[in-house]
Amino acid sequence: MMIPFEFRTDGPNNRWWIMGQWHVQPDRTKLETWDDYPDSQPSISLDFAYLNGHYYLNPVYMAIPPTIDNVIEIQPDQWLKIKVDITWSQGDDGKMSLWINDNKSPHIIYNGPNMLNAYQHYFKVGMYRHPKIKTENTINLKQLHISKTNN
What is the DSSP string of 72-122? Predict the structure, then answer.
């Protein structure tokens, strides 16, 4: 992913701006539908932030508010290789690890429940942002690889 140099931020408001998210969905095995399913936040998302003149990637886990310890400074016009490994669970064995640019150790690790129901969550990529943000922007995506492992 790359944020172009001409990307117009929402500073100083810094309202929510999501670049990719894993979201709950109705459990079709229980005959749930979108019509009767409650609205919710994504269980995991990759948010964008602009603070004090710096750009950040902000991984959000179960709506835990960001701190300076769980944001990653990024530079405009530079490609980021982002790897996310998720162990899905409604229990304490849930986990998310995130690496940037082939680092050997994850930049961020979250532990704990990360599913809002027992049905598979799905991935949405693109810009999802606060409705009052009216600027036009683009993000660049070069390649997306999704795989499922059972370990």
Answer: EEE-TT----EEEEEE--SSTT-EEEEEETT-SS-SEEEES---SSSSPPE
**What pLDDT digit, counting tens, does each position of 81-120 carry?**
999 999 999 999 999 999 999 899 999 999 999 999 889 9
Report the distance separating Cα 21 and Cα 42, nearest Å: 6
Peptide bond connecting 66 to the previous residue in cis, omega within 30 degrees of 0? no
Question: How is residue 142 written in tokens?
Answer: 């070069």
End-to-end CA distance of the chain: 28
DSSP state of 52: T
Q: Report residue 62 as tokens.
A: 């179960």
Among 81, 88, 138, 97, which Cα is nearest to 116's? 88
Nearest to 46 by CA among 120, 102, 100: 100
Q: What is the gyration radius of the CA atoms in the chain, in angstroms?
A: 16
Q: How crowded is residue 38: how many other Cβ atoms within 10 Å of its Cβ? A: 7
